[in-house]
Design brief:
heterodimer; A: 517 residues; Glutaredoxin; Rossmann fold; 5-stranded mixed beta sheet; 23 helices; 16 strands; globular; B: 186 residues; alpha+beta; 2 domains; 9 helices; elongated
Chain lengths: 517, 186
């Protein structure tokens, strides 16, 4: 019987040489006359060990990593196909501490299955949620999602069930489901991991959303920087059509749902839902005024659900196990699990899915192992480029939407970027302004002009020019951006800038000022 | 009225597409035919999709490498848009380009996670090594350099993408090795 070897096809593993490793394994096996079956799975999310290969043994899957192509011959010599000892031997994957301490609901299959095998998906509890949904009426589907307490995982944390309910109750001849897969936030990659590692779960989630609100057409708006995810999604969509899980008559139910991937073109602002819809309509991605809400008048003027990848990918398990099951995870008003992404200057970067409530300190040190450089972690930015910089004194904050907003921080999409003590936070604040200037859609003045003026003021501050005048000017400008911008791009750029100024004043010349005095 | 007329004349003369003919006068006929065919195919196969403009522009850029100015009137006509609207969309999106790229396009991640892992130094090294800044192409036409705001490879920062291939944990030495290999193959 042939032995199954798993070599991740996740683009971050590929960026570390997984393709070359897979080719070397295949070549060695051929030369040695061994029959093996190589499965290109998703990543388990233990990225410092990528490429992390696994071998199926009677005791379970045994992991080795990080493997480079030159290690492959040695692995065969060490009989890795039977879990043999080797310097890169990591033991049973499921027993690894980093993995074992997680609660994987949305990511239940990622890294385990062959991402584009429908059989594998079904064998691992896939499409059970859809089957339950097909036996319910629309209102009950939406009720399950409402009961689960799921809130939009894209960052805004708006209750998903309420959004769906609005679309359900808005009569129209055509409704749409849009998956916002424009994951442009730095330090976030959970959407990419789902799309590359378990694309069917997103297809299933969107199909359930279609049944729930009465939409027959779905679009996945995917960023152009994710070509690998595009391939995987298209393969999954084709397989789902082929097997009758998509199309005019889903599993003979009489319900229709069609799905198409649309590719963005490198505009960060298109992650904002109204800008995204403009882009899907073939226009410049200018933000729209709200109201009307997209749920009432969205894509092509029709009622539209716009949800993030993780929100939609969490729907199948909610419909499979019930809203109550999902709601029992988490704390306060943050229910369920959050896939947290650790990156930046950190020893063990990766994906940690866990119920809300872990503290930053637990994530940075217990999971992350401290900084990669071995120096103290001075700051973290949570929630992407529009999230606050947080100092060590806030590391005991639990991951919870309300706990974060109480200290003027943003949990967002759950991305955590760590910086060691060599970082100049004023430079990072300048970068935030520059980024806003580059990515602003230009529709509203505070964002369009304010970001450019903000970059200039930050330049002056970094040079130490007239700080008594320029720092109040920066605060004043941030106030205008915060209160006067049309969308979150301009409206939230003050979060990294002001948090940097408030928590790390020493980088803004406060020291010089003290010395001068 | 007279001023308006003069202005319009000026605007037409200054209009980017009015230079099209001159720009491509050196291009040989086969290239031109190939380009026109790619544009025609893109339009014919995609124009009936709802919101067809971005898919058409992607198809053109995927085939030709950029979106030639002389394709804009055809695209505009097919979608019942003005040329200005099509030009507006092309210029809005960072990914679309209106000039031919080098043989290889490098996308260097500038986002926070990569910065936390030293991407700024890597960035200057890359610019020095290639002798170009962002949005430029080397004089020999081998490399184009573009910034990107996150490749989603944050767990293995700093990262970059060259054509379709992605690289994590890029050091200056590793970058030089990759570029040397690419140069040797050209």
């Amino acid at each position: 019987m042939s032995i199954t070897v798993y070599v991740p096809n996740d683009s971050c593993a590929v960026a570390m040489g997984a393709d070359q490793v897979a080719a070397a394994i295949s070549e060695q096996a051929r030369n040695r006359g061994l029959e093996i079956d190589i499965v290109r799975n998703g990543s388990r999310g233990l990225y410092w060990l990528e490429p992390m290969i696994e071998v199926a043994t009677p005791a379970g899957r045994v992991a080795y990593g990080p493997v480079q192509k030159n290690d492959v011959e040695g692995l065969f010599e060490a009989d890795f196909l039977n879990g043999g000892a080797h310097a890169l031997h990591l033991g049973l994957t499921e027993e690894m501490d980093y993995f074992k301490r997680q609660q994987r609901l949305t990511f239940a299959r990622v890294g385990i299955t062959d991402p584009i095998s429908l059989d594998d998906y079904i064998k691992h509890d896939g499409y059970r949620g859809l089957k339950n949904a097909l036996a319910m009426n629309s209102a009950d589907i939406v009720k399950h999602v409402t009961d689960s307490g799921l809130r939009g995982r894209g960052g805004a944390a708006f209750p998903t069930g309420i959004k769906w309910n609005t679309v359900l109750n808005t009569p129209a001849d055509q409704k749409y489901i849009i998956c916002n897969a424009d994951e442009g936030d730095s330090g976030t990659f959970s959407d990419r991991m789902i799309m590359e590692g378990d694309p069917f779960v997103l297809v299933e989630g969107m199909t359930i959303a279609g049944l729930g609100v009465g939409a027959t057409q779905g679009y996945i708006y995917l960023r152009v920087e994710y070509p690998h995810a595009e391939k995987m999604l298209n393969a999954a969509i084709a397989a789902a059509y082929e097997a009758g899980y998509l199309g005019d008559n889903i599993l003979g139910s009489g319900h229709a749902f069609h799905l198409e991937v649309r590719i963005g073109a490198g505009a960060y602002v298109c992650g904002e839902e109204t800008s995204l819809m403009e882009s899907l309509e073939g226009k410049r991605g200018l933000v729209r005024f709200k109201p009307p809400l997209p749920a009432i008048s969205g894509l092509f003027g029709k009622p539209t659900v716009v949800n993030n990848v993780i929100s939609l990918a969490s729907v199948p398990i909610i419909l499979d196990k019930g809203g109550d099951y999902y709601r029992d995870f988490g704390m306060g008003r943050s229910r369920g699990t959050l896939p947290i992404q650790l990156s930046g200057n950190i020893k063990r970067p990766g994906l940690v899915e866990s119920a809300f409530g872990l503290t930053l300190r637990e994530l940075l040190y217990d999971f992350g192992g401290g900084s990669a450089s071995g120096r103290p972690i001075r700051a973290v930015q949570v929630g992407g480029p529009l999230g606050s910089y947080m100092p060590e004194s806030q590391f005991d904050t639990p991951l919870d939407y309300e706990a974060f907003s109480a200290i003027w921080a943003v949990l967002g999409h759950g991305g955590i970027v760590a910086f060691d003590d060599t970082v100049n936070i004023a430079e990072m604040a300048r970068y935030s302004m520059e980024f806003c200037a580059i990515e602003s859609c230009g529709k509203c003045t505070p964002c369009r002009i304010g970001s450019t003026r903000g970059t200039e003021v930050m330049d002056a501050i970094i040079k130490g020019d007239n700080l008594n005048k320029n720092i109040p000017l920066l605060r004043d400008l941030c106030d205008t951006l915060l209160n006067g911008s049309l969308c979150a791009l301009g409206g939230m750029t003050p979060y990294p800038v002001l948090s940097a100024l408030n928590h790390f004043p020493e980088d803004f010349g406060a020291q010089d000022k003290a010395n001068a005095a | 009225m007279c001023f308006l007329h003069a202005y319009l004349k000026y605007a037409i003369l200054r209009h980017p597409y009015s230079e099209t003919k001159e720009q491509h006068s050196e291009t040989n006929m086969t290239d031109l035919n190939g380009r026109q065919e790619a544009v025609r195919n893109a339009i014919a196969s995609l124009k009936d999709k709802p919101g067809a403009l971005l898919p058409i522009l992607h198809s053109v850029q995927d085939t030709i490498g950029y979106i030639p100015a002389d394709s804009i009137p055809d695209i505009a006509r097919a979608l019942n848009l003005s040329r200005a609207e099509v030009h507006g969309v092309i210029s809005f999106y960072h990914y679309f380009r209106d000039t031919p790229p080098g043989k290889h396009t490098l996308h260097v991640c500038r986002a926070e996670s990569c910065q936390a892992m030293g991407s700024k130094q890597l960035e200057s090294h890359i610019k020095n090594r290639l002798g170009i800044d962002y949005h430029e192409t080397t004089a020999d036409g081998k490399f184009s350099l573009e910034p990107v705001y996150c490749l989603g490879l944050c767990a293995r920062s700093p990262s970059l993408q060259i054509d379709d291939a992605v690289y994590g944990r890029v050091t200056e030495e590793r970058f030089d090795a990759i570029v040397n290999e690419l140069e040797a193959s050209l």
